[in-house]
Each structure stands twice: as structure tokens, then as C-alpha cells.
């Protein structure tokens, strides 16, 4: 990080994340659009009190059950998650037995290489460096996939995603777990399991839930999934954000 944030600063964690994304742009990993997306996320996180709410924990429990049930889970990585949560996603991938795959909206071969180099620097290989297959019917560059990963995955974890691919993956019969701070966004509205939380809190929480549920067995995981209601999770998240807005002092608006 080129700018040293004093740890005593009241907004320390938020500023460090912001500078990581800024560094990502400088390194050619994150797109400038990723800065805008991050700012949007920050605003929602502010309204959520920058903490994981019970609706996020509940969704993580369901997501953990889905990953434990899955035969071929894949974690999708883009320019923002590569900068913010590479180590957390590597760790989650190992715990969940899931592959990591680069999937970017603003495609460029050199971006894929740079993301892969970052993961290698943390000791992990990643798929999608040179995509060799397509999700037929999806028009954006997100259709470019790795035949060893996303193409025939049965469960895909997406974060900071646009809605098109999520809709497509769900229609293709895959289970989609979305992490997004905006419950009104098309991705969490379309995914079967939506974790409304910051990726930096959500992925470690999800990993903890997998460890907690692992010993319970398939029948218990399936029961969790059968009773899970994503609509009520989205409603609770929207309500928390609306309440957060009401609780803000007037001079903050
Ligand atoms: O690296 P690329 O080329 O694949 O591009 C990635 C971006 C993020 C630029 C692209 O997917 C994009 O434009 O995303 P959107 O449509 O802006 O959606 C991003 C969503 O993620 C928004 O709903 C934000 O509120 C949310 N978000 C932003 N930061 C976080 C977040 N959700 C969870 N954790 C965050 N830290």
C-alpha cells in the first residue's frame, strides 16, 4: 500500500480497503469501474453499521450447507475480490473443496495474468487464466470460462457481480451463492442464497459455518437448505438498511 493509514484512525479498516482497491487499479488487477462499485458498497455497509447482521449469518449457514452438498463448487474471482479477499477466498476454497476461477466483466488477458500472479504469490493456483470454453447464450465477457471449472460446476459463489451472469447460471441449473451489500441489486435478487454483507466479513464467516456444519452430515445440510427462505433474508436486509438510513444524524445526509 502506497499510503500509510494510521491504525488509530477511526475509519482505519474502511480506508485500508479503499487503498487496496486503489492499488488494484494501479497494478492492473481492478478496473477503474471497480472503484465506483466499491464506493457503492461502502455506502450500503455504512448503513448496515459495518457489521454482519443475523440475516447474513443465516445466509452463510445455508451457503455452507450448499457448498458441503455440492459435487463441484467454484468460487468466482474478479478484480475487486482479488484485491480485497484473495487470502480469505483461498482459505475458503480449501475448506469447501472448491476451485477458484477468474471471471471478469472487463476482460483483458493481461488482467487475468495479473490476478493469477496475485493468487500464486499467496501459494494458490487459479483457473480461468486462459479461458477455453463459453457459457453459450451469455453475451458479456463473463461467458468466458474454464472447462475444468465453472463450465460444469453445480454451485458457484459470486461477489460484486452484475446480474446477467447470475440469471444465466441459475437458469442453467446451478446453485448460486451471491455476496453483495445491496439487497436490491439484481444479483442477490436472482441468486438462491444471498449473503448481504461485506466480502471481507462474509467469506471468513462462511468458512467458519462450513467447519461448524461439516460433522452434521448430508441429511442435516439438506434440511437447512429445505427450510431456507432467501426472500425473507432480502426483506430483512432491506429493512436494516432503511432503519440505518433513519438512524443517521441529519448532517450526515
Ligand atoms: O473485475 P471486473 O471486470 O469483473 O469488474 C467488477 C465490477 C465490480 C466492476 C463489476 O462487477 C460491477 O460493475 O459491479 P456492480 O454492478 O457495480 O455491482 C457491484 C455490487 O457489489 C454492488 O451492489 C455493490 O453494492 C456491491 N459491493 C461493493 N463492494 C462490496 C460489495 N458487496 C460486498 N462487499 C463489498 N466489499
Please describe what this structure looks like:
With 253 residues, the chain is of the alpha/beta class. Helix content is 53%, strand content 10%. The protein has a 5-stranded parallel beta sheet with strand order 2-1-5-6-7, with helices on both faces. The protein has a two-stranded antiparallel ribbon with strand order 3-4. It is globular and about 50 Å long. 44% of the residues are buried. The model has no long low-confidence stretch (mean pLDDT 94). The protein binds ligand PTJ. Ligand PTJ is lined by residues 31, 33-34, 37-38, 40-41, 44, 78-80, 84, 104-106, 159-162, 179-182, 185, 198-199.
**Order of strands in the sheet with the most strands?**
2-1-5-6-7
The rounded distance between the terminal residues' Cα atoms is 31 Å
Largest sheet: 5 strands, parallel
Q: What structural class results from the helix and strand content?
A: alpha/beta
Q: Which bin fits the share of residues in helices?
A: 40-55%
Distinct compounds present: ligand PTJ
Question: How much β-strand is present in the residues?
Answer: 5-15%
Tell me the series of helices and strands, N- to C-terminal: HHHEHHEHEEEHEHEHHH
Count of distinct strands: 7
Number of H- or I-type helical stretches: 11
Are there runs of 5+ residues with pLDDT below 50, and where? none
Task: State mean pLDDT (0 to 100 scale).
Answer: 94
| Broad shape | globular
Radius of gyration: 18 Å
Amino acid at each position: 500500500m502506497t499510503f500509510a493509514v494510521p491504525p488509530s484512525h477511526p475509519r482505519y479498516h474502511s480506508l485500508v480497503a479503499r487503498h487496496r482497491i486503489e492499488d488494484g487499479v494501479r497494478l492492473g488487477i481492478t478496473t477503474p469501474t471497480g472503484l465506483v462499485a466499491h464506493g457503492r458498497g461502502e455506502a450500503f455497509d455504512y448503513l448496515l453499521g459495518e457489521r454482519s447482521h443475523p440475516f447474513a449469518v443465516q445466509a452463510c449457514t445455508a451457503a455452507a450447507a450448499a457448498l458441503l452438498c455440492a459435487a463441484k463448487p467454484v468460487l468466482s474471482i474478479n478484480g475487486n475480490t482479488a484485491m480485497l479477499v484473495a487470502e480469505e477466498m483461498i482459505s475458503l476454497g480449501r475448506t469447501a473443496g472448491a476451485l477458484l476461477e477468474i471471471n471478469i466483466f472487463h476482460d483483458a488477458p493481461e488482467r487475468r495474468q495479473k490476478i493469477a500472479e496475485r493468487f500464486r504469490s499467496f501459494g494458490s493456483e487459479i483457473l480461468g487464466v486462459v479461458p477455453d470454453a463459453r457459457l453459450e447464450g451469455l453475451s458479456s465477457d463473463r461467458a468466458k470460462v474454464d472447462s475444468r471449472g465453472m463450465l460444469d460446476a453445480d454451485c458457484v459463489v459470486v461477489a460484486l457481480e452484475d446480474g446477467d451472469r447470475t440469471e444465466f447460471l441459475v437458469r442453467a441449473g446451478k446453485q448460486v451463492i451471491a455476496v453483495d451489500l445491496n439487497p436490491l441489486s439484481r444479483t442477490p435478487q436472482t441468486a438462491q442464497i444471498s449473503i448481504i454483507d461485506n466480502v471481507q466479513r462474509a467469506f471468513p464467516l462462511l468458512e467458519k459455518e462450513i467447519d461448524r456444519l461439516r460433522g452434521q452430515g448430508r441429511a442435516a445440510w439438506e434440511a437447512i437448505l429445505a427450510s431456507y427462505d432467501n426472500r425473507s433474508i432480502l426483506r430483512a436486509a432491506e429493512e436494516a438498511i432503511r432503519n440505518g438510513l433513519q438512524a443517521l444524524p441529519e448532517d450526515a445526509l
